Structures are given as C-alpha cells and as structure tokens.
Amino acid sequence: MSGKSEQQERFLCEQDAIWAAALADILSAEGIALRMQQVYGAGLSAYVGPICERTEFYVPAEQLERAKEIVRVLFSQTVLEPDEDALQEAASDALHAHIRRANSDDSERIAEIEVFNYRLNFFPIFRNDDYYFNELRVSAKAAEYEALREQTWVYDDGVVKGFIRVDDGEIRKLFVEPVLQGNGIGAALLDYATAQLNAGTLWALEKNERAIAFYQRHGFCLTGEKKLEEDTDEYLVCLQKRAGV
C-alpha cells in the first residue's frame, strides 16, 4: 500500500515468521489488504545477526476490526469453536502449501542453494580453500541430488527457495537461499518435516550457533550427544524434537 491508503493503515499484530505466510494468505482470501514488515524479535538481532524471525502486519483502518477477529481466532489460546478449528487448519495448510517433493528439474537449484550456504556458513569455520572453491561445485552436487529426490522436499512458490532432506526420521539437510532467509521458509520446511514426515532428530555443527538457536526456537533440544565431523577436528551435536512441541 502507498500514498493515501498507507497513511490510513493501522498496526494489526506481530507474529513469528513461521506463521507469516499463513496469516497473509488468510487475510488476502478474506479481501483484507495488508502490508508486511520484517522485524527482529527482542534481543534477537544481537544474537543471530541479519536473520529476521518476526513479521509486523498493517491493514487499512476500515478493515482493522475484521482483521483483529481473524488474528484472535487463529492465535487465541482458548478452546476453538468448530468454525474456528477450520481456520486453524487452513493456517496450517497455507503454511505447507508451497512444499512438495523434489523432482529432476530441481536438482541444479537445490545444489546451488546448498553450495552457496556451505561457502557462507562453513568456509569461515573450516577455511579449506580447495574443498569450498574447487571441489564443491553445483554440477557435482546436482548429480548427487538426482539420486536423492525421494528424500528431498522443496519450498516452491514459483521459485525453489529452500529445501529439506529427510532420511528415516532424521533431518540431513535444511537450507534456504541466503538472500531469502528470515521469511519463514526454513521454519515452514522444518514444521512440515516434523508434522508430515515424522522427522525428529538432526545433527548440527557445534560452532554453527545460529543454526542451533534456530532449531531450539522451533522445538528441538540438545541431547548432549556429539561426534566428530568426518575428516575434521570439529564436532557435530545432536538435537531432538521435544515431545508435545
């Protein structure tokens, strides 16, 4: 919204990024115009840098009361009436609507996302020039994912923006295009994996504190178990989904 309409908009709510896409879809389906703005949670920016985990919503003043009622129904802690149950289910469906199993056309894009994230997140830890800039190639990774399509799901809203790989209940990979992080894509993929694929465990690099904090915010806890990353002196730590979360 812009111009006169923007001057008349009102603050609606602030929600975790994991619910932003679902809330936006439902408000739009109800004919409510909206503007979304990414914000940091309290103290979050100092801890995880540029990752945004909350989103503010603004709507036209004349639609504020209707929008408030929708938010109340979706995010109320009270027992929901049957029609409100339907809205809650719609929110969950909207969250997962863009997630599908990978196909052969996705392999190169998945590889690209993984290579970019490896160089961004892991090169500063391992400092292995030969691996990260010679051996680590999109073409080679794409060939690997040709054989892993049955274990891989992508977030695709017209463009593949992230992916998750799950094998026998364990999350093996979860990456989002770096420039698109902070939009709830990783959270949606993680929620889908735990809710639909029965994924409950994963291993993360001990020094990747940002990733560990992300998983902990979304219901995982450290088990105390750790192991060496193959051919390195760095440790991986095990995280497990908390029961009932």
Structural class: alpha+beta
| Tally of DSSP β-strands | 10
- The rough form would be described as elongated
Instruction: Describe the main β-sheet briefly.
Output: 7 strands, mixed
Low-pLDDT runs of 5+ residues are: 1-6, 42-52, 77-82
Describe the overall structure.
With 245 residues, this protein is of the alpha+beta class. The chain has 2 domains: 3-96, Alpha-Beta Plaits; 99-241, Gcn5-related N-acetyltransferase (GNAT) (Aminopeptidase), CATH 3.40.630.30. It is built from 10 helices and 10 strands. A hairpin with a 2-residue loop joins strand 6 (160-167) and strand 7 (170-176). Helix 2 packs across helix 5 and helix 4 (64-75) packs across helix 5 (82-96). It is elongated. The chain starts with a helix and ends with a strand.
Short précis:
This protein is of the alpha+beta class and 245 residues long. It has helices at 3-7, 17-29, 44-48, 64-75, 82-96, 107-126, 129-135, 138-146, 185-196, 209-217; strands at residues 9-16, 35-39, 54-60, 99-101, 152-156, 160-167, 170-176, 201-205, 220-228, 235-241.
Any chance you could write out the topology, listing elements then pairs?
Layout: H1 3-7, E1 9-16, H2 17-29, E2 35-39, H3 44-48, E3 54-60, H4 64-75, H5 82-96, E4 99-101, H6 107-126, H7 129-135, H8 138-146, E5 152-156, E6 160-167, E7 170-176, H9 185-196, E8 201-205, H10 209-217, E9 220-228, E10 235-241
Parallel strand pairs: 7-8
Antiparallel strand pairs: 1-3, 2-3, 4-5, 5-6, 6-7, 8-10, 9-10
Helix pairs in contact: 2-5, 4-5, 6-8
